[in-house]
Amino acid sequence: MTEATKPVYLKLRDIIAASILSGEYKEGDMLPSVRSFAAKQGANPLTVAKAYQGFQDDGLVEVQRGVGMYVAGGATEKLRTQERDNFMQNVWPPVVRQMKRIGISPQELLSLEDC
């Protein structure tokens, strides 16, 4: 699935996941309310609720009724593992195929790290 065809709730989920992985939201921190996040992203609150529900289903957030959602303990590592697995299974293979087609070697890539 390309970014253009990805459903909005998954795009919102990616934004939240990136915020957790970058440390903007640490384990134990409260996430923005559904309405607040929806307003900030220009999204429908029901769509944001669906994205948040996915985090809840995956055990990445804890809900305190009437208070809010908090980043669960271990969420950062779990997200990092999910992101790494997705990268290795879905992102990297087409890159490797393109590298082979155009003749880029792993050594060439490593030499770019100095740039």
Question: Average pLDDT across residues?
Answer: 93
Oligomerization category of the chains in this entry: single chain
Strand content: 5-15%
Instruction: List unreliable stretches of 5+ residues.
Output: none
Count of separate DSSP helical elements: 5
Radius of gyration: 18 Å
Number of strands: 2
The major beta sheet can be summarized as:
2 strands, antiparallel
Structural class: mainly alpha
Task: Measure the end-to-end span.
Answer: 31 Å
Task: Estimate percent helicity.
Answer: 55-70%
Query: Judging from the principal axes of the Cα atoms, what is the shape?
Result: elongated
Task: Give a structural overview.
By secondary structure, the protein is mainly α. 61% of the residues lie in helices and 7% in strands. It contains five helices and two strands; from the N terminus they run αααββαα. The protein has a two-stranded antiparallel ribbon. α1 (8-21) packs across α3 (45-57). It is elongated. The two termini are 31 Å apart. The mean pLDDT is 93.
